[in-house]
Amino acid sequence: MAFSNVLLVSVAAVVAVVLYLRNKRARSPLANIRGPSPVSLWKGNLPQIFDIEGWEFPVRIFNEYGRVAKMTGLFGNEVIYASDPRVIRRVLLNFPPPPMVTQSHNLLNGDGLLGTNGEQHRRQRRMLNPLFAPKHLKTLTHLFFARANKMNKTFLEDFGIKDHPKVLNMHYWASRITLDLVSTTSFGRSLDPLDSGRFGAPVYRCCSPAALPLSVLRITIPYMRYLGPKNFRRWLVHNLPWPALNTMGKVVDVISNTATSTYENKKNMELDEDEDAEQRDVMSTLLRANKKALAEDRLSDYEVISQVGTLTAAANDTTPNVLSRVFYMLSKYPKVQDTLRAEILAADFDLENSDPGQLYDQLMALPYLDAVLKESMRLDCPVSMIQRRANVDSTIPLWKPIIGADGTEVTSINVPKDTDFILQIANAHRDAEIWGDDVMEYKPERWLKDLPDSFEDAKLPGVFYQIMAFGGGYKACIGYKYAELQMKVQLYTLLSSFRLSLTDDNLIWNMHMVTTPGIVGQKGSQFPVQLSAL
């Protein structure tokens, strides 16, 4: 009898919970937004959204539901999945990332830009903005060209490409030059010699592939501080039988130890106040700026260390993958490659005698180089999704109506506070009503003429020519001009010396946090390219 009573109470409780959830959803302001059924009881549609091979999923959602759909997140949570440009604009300009996203960055790299919000983030941004302005970047132009030419020399001489074509993993080499440049400009010392030997710090290449399997942990991050002291939590990261977690622990340790040791070496140095001083790296510049700043604006020691770690991790996670995609496009479309090479050879920069500011301006003024970079990141955006959470109740008008669950047109959505958004950037970049009927064609020349009126009307809030590759709003990538300089310098030097051709390898693109190239059946990020000397 007692067992029957327990059973009846349990069944009643389950029914009550089910009815509550059903009624709650029926009352939801998002009830009229259509979307696919969840595929998991507790993970909802997240396995589809974050499938590394799931490139067809956003296409299907766009075709079936339009620019706004309702997904199911963890434990039945409602998620807005949107590529509508008005929604993207409102969300990125006003809403922060979900706490689990910010806190996960904080766990990895401390109180850097990605790991902070509110006034602390604004204060850091004000301090860091001058470091990524063209005025400062111009002083680095010769350094970028010198490193790119050193890599070319390694290819030509150490690998003998001046005599015979050779296939190289260009993702690997893009990672190496990125690490060299980022470490030099962040720490004031290089972590990679760019010779034919082994990668100076191979753990840096593991960050993005290790991060995706750990996504499920993000919901537990706010509670991790209750697991015990920091040393115990570090021990867990390195010793639990979870390879992705162990790898991420190594990445964090390397970045943190490098940033901390560099700070300890520099904090007591006499830093030259001259703007033309050799000490232009981020760490030295921040230390100088901190001395001049008002007490309430200064960054703590931990914040300075965290900025350098954040910038290092962010650059090594993105730039090599963008360059790999550009190399792929140039190899796939040899006419585009030939046109770009003709522009570069005609420019014929005087790298030894040019003023760095003048050289920077000349490089940025190359129209076809600019167009190739824009079109590559439009058609194949390296970051396909951005997550945000509403911090207030909002009504957001749509750019174009969608059809609701009741068959009527929906022209705006009422969004309750704490609603999660997944902004589908890849769909926005491939929307024919924004870009034109040739949206799926790789056409750099589209950027050499006026874009459709619909493009101006959509007003995508990307910081990089309205492309969302570097995000938008107050959390947009602060280093996008730095990345642009590196990529343009590398393309200029590489195409001046080599012809790029695809191999017969079965190439795939994995939808990690940042899209990464790989070879079917092989581990690790790879993009083989045949280089032939001109």
From TrEMBL:
<keyword id="KW-0560">Oxidoreductase</keyword>
<comment type="similarity">
    <text>Belongs to the cytochrome P450 family.</text>
</comment>
<dbReference type="InterPro" id="IPR017972">
    <property type="entry name" value="Cyt_P450_CS"/>
</dbReference>
<dbReference type="GO" id="GO:0005506">
    <property type="term" value="F:iron ion binding"/>
</dbReference>
<dbReference type="GO" id="GO:0016020">
    <property type="term" value="C:membrane"/>
</dbReference>
<dbReference type="InterPro" id="IPR036396">
    <property type="entry name" value="Cyt_P450_sf"/>
</dbReference>
<comment type="pathway">
    <text>Secondary metabolite biosynthesis; terpenoid biosynthesis.</text>
</comment>
<feature type="transmembrane region" description="Helical">
    <location>
        <begin position="6"/>
        <end position="22"/>
    </location>
</feature>
<keyword id="KW-0479">Metal-binding</keyword>
<dbReference type="GO" id="GO:0016705">
    <property type="term" value="F:oxidoreductase activity, acting on paired donors, with incorporation or reduction of molecular oxygen"/>
</dbReference>
<dbReference type="InterPro" id="IPR002403">
    <property type="entry name" value="Cyt_P450_E_grp-IV"/>
</dbReference>
<keyword id="KW-0349">Heme</keyword>
<keyword id="KW-0812">Transmembrane</keyword>
<dbReference type="GO" id="GO:0020037">
    <property type="term" value="F:heme binding"/>
</dbReference>
<keyword id="KW-1133">Transmembrane helix</keyword>
<dbReference type="Pfam" id="PF00067">
    <property type="entry name" value="p450"/>
</dbReference>
<keyword id="KW-0503">Monooxygenase</keyword>
<dbReference type="InterPro" id="IPR050121">
    <property type="entry name" value="Cytochrome_P450_monoxygenase"/>
</dbReference>
<feature type="binding site" description="axial binding residue">
    <location>
        <position position="477"/>
    </location>
    <ligand>
        <name>heme</name>
    </ligand>
</feature>
<dbReference type="InterPro" id="IPR001128">
    <property type="entry name" value="Cyt_P450"/>
</dbReference>
<keyword id="KW-0472">Membrane</keyword>
<dbReference type="GO" id="GO:0004497">
    <property type="term" value="F:monooxygenase activity"/>
</dbReference>
<protein>
    <recommendedName>
        <fullName>Cytochrome P450</fullName>
    </recommendedName>
</protein>
<keyword id="KW-0408">Iron</keyword>
